[in-house]
Structure formats: C-alpha cells, structure tokens
User: What shape does this take?
Amino acid sequence: MNYEEILRRLQELPPGGLTKKRINGKEYTYYQWTQDKKQRSRSVGPEEAALLKKQIEERKALQKQLSGHPQVFYAIPRSPAFTALADSESQFATDVRIGESLDNFAASTSAYKKRDIFPILNDYIQGDSHDKVFILYGLRRTGKTTMIRQTIYGMSAAQRKKTVFMQINANNSLADVNNDLKKLEKAGYKYVFIDEVTLMEDFIEGAALFSDVYASSGMKIVLSGTDSLGFVFSEDEQLYDRCVLLHTTFIPFREFATVLGINDLDEYIRYGGTMSKSGQNYNKGIFSTKQSADEYVNTAIARNIQHSLKNYQYEGHFRNLYELYEKNELTSAINRIVEDMNHRFTVSVLTQDFKSHDFGLARANLRRDRKNPSNVLDQVDKSALTLNLKKMLEILNKNEQSVQIKDQHKIEIKEYLDLLDLTCDIDLVNMTNLNDGQKLTVFSQPGLRYSQAEYLIKSLLLDERFKELSLIERKQIEARMLEEIKGRMLEEIVLLETKKAFAQKQVFKLQFAVGEFDMVVFDEQNASNEIFEIKHSDQISSEQYRHLVDKEKLLQTERRYGTITKRTVLYQGEDATLDNGIEFRNVKEYLLALKTTAA
Assistant: This one.
C-alpha cells in the first residue's frame, strides 16, 4: 500500500478495542470505542469479535507503518459510514447493526453452505407476503443466526440499505423495541431481523404488535431466538395465522453431511444435533465432556422451558409443574427425563430409583458375543455402579426429592419436550396385541445421547473389579458396548428421519411373539408396505435377514398391511441383492437420499 491507500484504509477500519469480562462464571466480549469524548461499549458475539479483532490488528499494523508521522494518523477522521452507525446506535435501546457493520456481519458467512430449509426464510424476504411476521426458532447452535446473515448477504445493495439487525438483551422491553421500530420505520427501513426476541419478559403477551402494526405497514419482520416454547405460545396466544413458522432444531444426517462436510454416520451419532461452520470440532466441544453436555441441557432445554412458562399467562401455564419450579427442582426433573429419553426409557422411570438399562443390555450382549464372550460385567458391583452413575449425571432419586414427581409432571414435561422438537414418538406395534399402543421415544439430538452413554462406560472404569482387568480386556469390552449403543442409535436415526421424510405414510417397528421388523413403512392408500432390518455392521449374513424370510411373519404382515413390495437390510456395506430377493442397501446413502420436512 502506498501512503494514500493506507490513509483510506484506516478510515474504513473501526477504532477502539476488545475487552473481556467474566460474569457469573461466563466470559463475555465487549467492543469499546471513544465517541464525542465518551467511552462507548457494546457486547459482541464470537464471530463478530473475531472479525473486529482482525480489523483492529490490521489498523494497528497500518498505524505502525505511519509511526514516523504520528500527526497524520491522529488527524484521520472516522469514516462517514462508521460515524453514522455509531451515532445511530446511541439512539436505540436495543443493539442494532446497519450500514457497514451489517455488511461485515453478513459477509463473513459468504462461504458457508446453506441448510435445506434456508429457501423458506429467503422466499419470505424476497416474496410478496404481507401482514405476516416470520418466526425462526430452535435450540442453541442450530443455525438460526447464520441463516439470517446468509439471507442478508444475498440481498441486493439497495435492500441492505433498508435492512437492520436488532439484538435483544434481557433488559429490553417490548416498549423499547416498539420505540426503536418507530424510528426505523420513519427512517425508511423495510427489512428488520430481531434476534433473541423472547428474552423480553413481555414478548409472548405482546407479540401481535409485530404483525398488526409493523408487518401490516409493509415491513418484513423476522423474529428469531432459542426460546422455542415461547414462540409456540405466542403463535397460539397472539399471532394466530399472522406468522410463518420455521423450526431449526432437527438437523438430519443429510444436512450434517452436506452443510458441515462430515460424511460419516458414526460422527453424526457421536456429535450430531448442533451446527456451526466448524462442524465436527465445535460439536465435540458441546458433547465431549459431561460439563459441556450438562450446560447445553440446562441452557438450551431446561431454561428454555422454564423461561417460557414463567413469562406466559402470568406463570399460569406451569400447571402441575409449578410446585417443582417453586422448589427449584424443575430443572432437575427436565434433566432427568432428557437423560431417560437418551437411554430409551419411558417417562415412568421418573418415579423409580435410577437404573441403567443400557448397562444390563451390554452385560447380556457380552455374554453371548460370538468372538469374545465375557461375563466380566456380572462381576461388577452394580450398587457401586449405580452410585457412580447417579453422582455423574446428578440425578435426584425419588427419596431425595422434596416434591414428589407425579405422573402428571411426567406427562407435562414430555409435552414440552415434544413441542421443542427434541422428542418424537415412534409406534411399537405388537402383532399379537394390536391395541397395545406402546411408543418408542426417539431423541432428535444423537450427540447428546451418545455423550451420556460414554459416561456410563467411564463409570464402569471406576469399578474396582473392572480396573483389575488387562488393558486389552477393558478396550475389548468398551468397544463392544459402544458398538451396541451405536447400533441402537442408528435404528432410531433411521426411524426418525424416515418418519419425517414420509409424513403421508406410517412408520413403525413391528413386533411378533418372537422377533421384530426394525422398521415398517406402510402405505395405506396403496395397501402396500416395505420392511427393514437396520444393522450397524458392514457384513452380509443370513443372521441379519432371518426375520425378513420368516414365512409366518411375512404372512401376518401382508394380511394386516397389504403387499410387501420390498425387503431391505440397511447396513454399512455396499449395495447388493440376494437371490431370495433380499436387498442390502448402504444406510448412509439411504439417509442422504431422504428429503426430510422442515416441520
């Protein structure tokens, strides 16, 4: 750069610096600068902080080049765009981004791939929809803000001049936002993105303001946030048919692979459930330790539910959960049921002392392992194991609760988990008792479940008798247990994603007096069905499809569900068709071909 180019570039770069503060054990980053002889400050997220850090470092490097001419540097004025932005920020109660700051905020996502649901948001902005607001909601780290930034980046320069991004904090009220929107409307802004809007305590009760006043006047308003339940309540209570809803929580394997570039099913089993540009490494940060997994459950799930209930209808929607909330035990109850869902338990386990069914299953499978059978888990002190698990997972046993968890508590917690899109019920059809009505509750974030399963194994390593085994034996048992867990999780992933992809069909497990079909896809309209076995193995063997060739099972199935059009084993190997008509299909390719719905 020559002298004039350095001067021009310095005018474009933001002044000031970054500072960090620790509040209640968490670290926050603030951007500080001086304006009109006054110190200004605002909080910034990780990605903006990284961008500002880079720009500030560039400014310092350019300053160094001009170190021989200090009077030149200090005479350099701020760019008009930045000055306008700084001046405007001081006029708003919320944190706003417009102009150059907004462009930088959006531009850093230019290389990111887009989620399959992205066009729904983009079509709202570019389309002719009027009188409706757009609600983008979902748990933390499921791509909401990234989708907003991608949408802004894809807008024309003329549109971006009329665009604002507003960040809400817990101190803001609906009155603050209303006043800011009035100023923006008067200034000609048409596209408004409001993030974390449910942090306002009065949002649910006053959400109709956005549709009735501003959207009806021609503004395109996108409301986003992690408080999913709050948005559900606001739709039911205030917005009715005046909103477009898009939920981001469910991230199928297809998007995990195409957006994050991680085309590995085992990695999805271990870390699936959240999404960021760093993909695998970031997800490992969430689900690799007990502390980080617990923090995610607490902040993304339990507090989500509690915050919505607290701010809805003057706390009247707590229903029977209020006594748990009042005793500060609702978070513990929610954590417990989340853990139970991850271990394929029913909510009735909430009224029992904690028991690990995964442990029992692994013990049985090790006994019958064909290559290396072992009874080592029979020797483990199960009482000590239970205590270790209880301590590790911080689950309250029934006799430790000052308020007893009742059946109605369980039902209500399950309702809210369903509304958060965290749980989905798969029918378990019993051919000998079609009225049985049992359900398999599948958890939509596999990484969270797998992290808890890993900690179960770590608890085994704490047992004295287990420690006495050789390293090779311990590794063998650990691998066998994890393989079993992955196999069962793979079944649930296939069932969940198939159900979402074929909403017009019935997807269920079919159980017989002896044995079961892992998945049936029933097309009632055409009186036909497909039956599946789902295996984590990459080997073809008759053991894997023995139920698919059982004549009595096939006869019962066709009598009840019509013609069987296909019998398939989904597994990790190459596609193949056997002489008896059984198809082996690669399970990864099967999932990649599914087009799951956004709902």
Remarks:
- Residues 32 and 38 are 10 Å apart (CA to CA).
- Confidence is low (pLDDT under 50) at residues 69-87, 343-352.
- The two ends are 52 Å apart (CA to CA).
